[in-house]
Amino acid sequence: METRINVNGRITAAEEAQLPVLDHGFLFGDSVYEVFWWHRGVLIQEAEHLDRLERSAGRLYMDLQVGREALVEAVEATVRAAGATDADDAYIRLIVTRGVGPLGLDFREVPRRSIIVIAAPANRPDEATVRRGIHVAFIDRRRMSIRALDPGAKTGNYLNNVLAQHEARLAGADDAVLLNDEGHVTEATTANVYVVREGALATPPMAAGILRGTTRTRILLLCADAGIRAREITLAPEDLREADEVFLSSSVRGILPVTAIDDAPVGDGAMGPITAQLRARFEAAADEEAARGGGAEAP
Ligand SMILES: Cc1ncc(COP(=O)(O)O)c(C=O)c1O
Description:
Elements: E1 4-7, E2 10-13, H1 24-28, E3 31-39, E4 42-43, H2 46-59, H3 68-81, E5 89-97, E6 114-121, H4 127-132, E7 134-142, H5 146-149, H6 159-170, E8 175-179, E9 185-188, E10 192-197, E11 200-203, H7 214-226, E12 230-232, H8 237-241, E13 245-250, E14 254-261, E15 264-265, H9 273-291
Parallel strand pairs: 7-8, 7-14, 11-12
Antiparallel strand pairs: 1-2, 1-6, 3-4, 3-5, 5-6, 8-9, 10-11, 10-13, 13-14, 14-15
């Protein structure tokens, strides 16, 4: 497959896709979006993503102006144009921007949303990447606060994450784990974070200032299924440093072990058994979802 981009119904190669400069999505990051994993012909956790898109739009006082069917049709047309087959895994980014309007912050006069879909080959981690795991760093920069711009809304305003990831790389790591203003653990720059200690899992609560990951929701259900104790609790950096296992989750990459924090190994520095088990269960759940043609059936 090849990358194709759909801008308000016009599907082109990536280099030809154009959006007007006066789109408030470009000017102000005034947009909402979702990244889906398209697997064996199915948008994995489609309903969860669309629910979240609607919730994100609500937080931005944004009327999406289009229904779910039209959004899914736009995605399907784009993925078809990209030439994806059932053997491909695709990365699908669905963006709804405020649209083109007057040059100013006031969006009340912006008449129409812009709908953009990017369909690209998915960059899923290979076995070697999984075995090595992710190296993370704690950095000085904080996750933006809930009262400033709630990280629970998935908006196009991503500079907090962009800069954090850059600073993690400057520190020699692959990704950052961000703390909030209270010094509690929130999430990585594009993934939720989990710790495992003595066989039990913990992940920060929404109140820490995080995105409610669709993968996170599925993982909590998979834990219940597997009889793994799982809690949403406030975590300190030490909880990660002293954990037996730490891992990250996001839609396209799935579950990835964190094997080093600030250059120190997590546990014995290799993927742990609970991470491996949840990873296998997560991949199997996606395969099952694809086999039944998608649709809501948890987990
Ligand atoms: C900041 C942040 N947290 C968490 C996630 C994981 O969300 P999901 O599992 O729905 O992909 C993402 C995904 O892009 C993200 O950007």
